[in-house]
User: Fold this.
Amino acid sequence: MGSGQVTDWQGKNVTVAGLGVSGVPAAKVLHGLGARVTVVNDGDDERARAQAAELQALGITVRLGDGDSLPDGTELIVTAPGWKPDKALFRAAEKADVPVWGDVELAWRLRGHGGRTPAPWLAVTGTNGKTTTVQMLASILRAAGLRTAAVGNIGVSLLDAVLGEETYDVLAVELSSYQLHWAPSLRAHSAAVLNLAPDHLDWHGSMEAYAADKGRIYEGNRIACVYNAADKATEDLVREADVEEGCRAIGFTPGTPAPSQLGVVDGILVDRAFVPNRQKNAQELAEVADIRPPAPHNIANALAAAALARAYGVPAAAVREGLRAFTPDAHRIAHVADLDGVAYVDDSKATNTHAAQASLASYESIVWIAGGLAKGATFDELVAGAAGRLRGVVLIGADRGLIRDALARHAPEVPVVDLDRTDTGAMLQAVQEAKRLARAGDTVLLAPACASMDMFVNYNQRGDAFAAAVRELAAR
Assistant:
């Protein structure tokens, strides 16, 4: 099906791989365009059967419990982003020369369907900070008077954005490494890679493959490739990308920016990239105090969002207004309460070591609540870097022993409470133990560095449990 737009879907045999949040909308869209759609799905549980019934009522074929067989006559597969590339279905597709797209690729190909003017994409990826950066970017774009939405991996369907009744001037698009893997023809107006650290290596197979998929976001960029000057791996991806003539590399840094960078000078976010005579001039964009919370990694997020907005031509005043208007989602370094001079902070979204490292670096004296499902991670580097900030540690979750062992090697003097329980009630005990260890001026920080599913439905429920425990202590 080439790399261009597909204008006639009538009668095309398309297999949608996977139900769920991406598969069901993709199947409906393709069916509505006239394609003959077959959905294949590994699972055959109650939820899958309910989704299947909804699609079958429209005339869509659904095969449950059969996610590995390639249906006869398939001309294209549209896959859920989480399906691994080494799956038997995709091996069969490669052998039969059948292309595989993700829902992001499908959305990209359908821009302009029905004669509408396609909105440019300002795209963001990275190991951590994607959602916050995209939301900041959308807030800045709205402050500039532009019709926009934060879409993609953030949970808002790109298919809805490109095909829905509402039209946009520009889209702020969050993309995961999974989504980028399955989006070969995506070409953004401008894009940013915020950071790179080991994550999802069981899916990608290696750090090199993971980084390569992240780097796809720069391919074909027209105006700017935004990279993290403090993370050389992101700049390396820019150097390797095949971009359009005239596309610029734009760095962001927590310090004083060089020409073609955005950075911070005396508490002011400044632009030395999108100004006349950038060798000598800088444009003030906002104050660090305009960013909530003003943690170092969140300032980096704001700089990346500002760089993408400036690449689109947004004026400096709108950057400040948009950052001031932005309110972060829950469970992202969120202040819960102050009790007896101790701050309690919920960063349950810190589900890997890279995110936890940024969170721990935001405070001087910490009682750290950590643990959960490690997902193959190691913790020596994280613990060694944070050792000097730790007043104490409370460990919870299935893989807490990995963190305990790292603490024994790199911070043996730090008191550790190891809670040998994985029920949801463990959080109240963890907060009680943290309160016992803390002193006035400390921060009790939930930054688990692990996934939550051993004890909780998701990181949201884990963060809610932490906040509830803190409130219970406050009420005593």
